[in-house]
């Protein structure tokens, strides 16, 4: 069984459990549910660097990356560094994240926050809003076109932006629709974990220009970004490269400074 199938099997059980624990009506009463959300797409459009910096403790491909940072410091550091937004992994079993991480990030910075999660149910989008997210991720490999439509429309009705992630042409073709804000190309093959920036380069011309283009995963140098920018990418999602250091915020600051030169 590949890792994505394993993650999704576990996620179905987790989501059913959570639904019973905290009903939608309770999520909708959260103070953050009424909050005015921030636009990550606009921040990326206005930026010359477009960095979405991720909080990532561990991953299926790299095991432990960093267990010692606290989310408060990382969020504050990323904001000071000049990131456009922050991605917060909320999956516990495979990434060591949680919704509390999202809440802590929300309390610690004014950056647009992406809930980085394996979303398969409308309930998780309502959770995202209740815990302070501005953006949700939809992964085309997990969803039918009809599901992408339903879930993205729900997100938009809650004033959340949608980053749709693809890995290949087939996923891209089935996903294009007006209820998406950003199209992300994941450079990591989720079956083999091999990373290749060629994936972003090859798919770029197939992405209509009305979407903000984001390149995700395996970006570890300023040079990598400079090779992706001519392909129309404005946003760059970076996790491990910052989280594996002794100070995620400081490493993002140095990276963004070099990118501006
Ligand atoms: O990172 C993984 O190993 C992984 C495995 C299976 C599904 C998703 C996975 N990662 C989620 C992400 O998309 C990345 O955390 C994100 O793009 C940042 O990637 P990186 O800069 O390479 O840490």
TrEMBL record:
The residues the entry assigns to the signal sequence are none
Q: Protein name, please? A: Indole-3-glycerol phosphate synthase
Transmembrane stretches, by residue range?
none
* Substrates-to-products reaction catalysed: 1-(2-carboxyphenylamino)-1-deoxy-D-ribulose 5-phosphate + H(+) = (1S,2R)-1-C-(indol-3-yl)glycerol 3-phosphate + CO2 + H2O
Keyword set includes Ribosomal protein? no
Q: Which species expresses this protein natively?
A: Lacinutrix neustonica
Q: Which Pfam families match?
A: IGPS
Q: In which pathway does it act?
A: Amino-acid biosynthesis; L-tryptophan biosynthesis; L-tryptophan from chorismate: step 4/5
Q: What is one GO biological process annotated to this record?
A: L-tryptophan biosynthetic process
Task: List residues of the Indole-3-glycerol phosphate synthase domain.
Answer: 4-251
Q: Which residues form a coiled coil?
A: none
One molecular function GO term is: phosphoribosylanthranilate isomerase activity
What is the similarity comment for this entry? Answer: Belongs to the TrpC family.
Keyword Membrane assigned: no
Keyword set, alphabetical order: Amino-acid biosynthesis, Aromatic amino acid biosynthesis, Decarboxylase, Lyase, Tryptophan biosynthesis
- Record-listed E.C. numbers: 4.1.1.48
Q: What class of enzyme is it?
A: lyase
> InterPro entries, per this entry?
Aldolase_TIM, Indole-3-glycerol_P_synth, Indole-3-glycerol_P_synth_dom, RibuloseP-bd_barrel
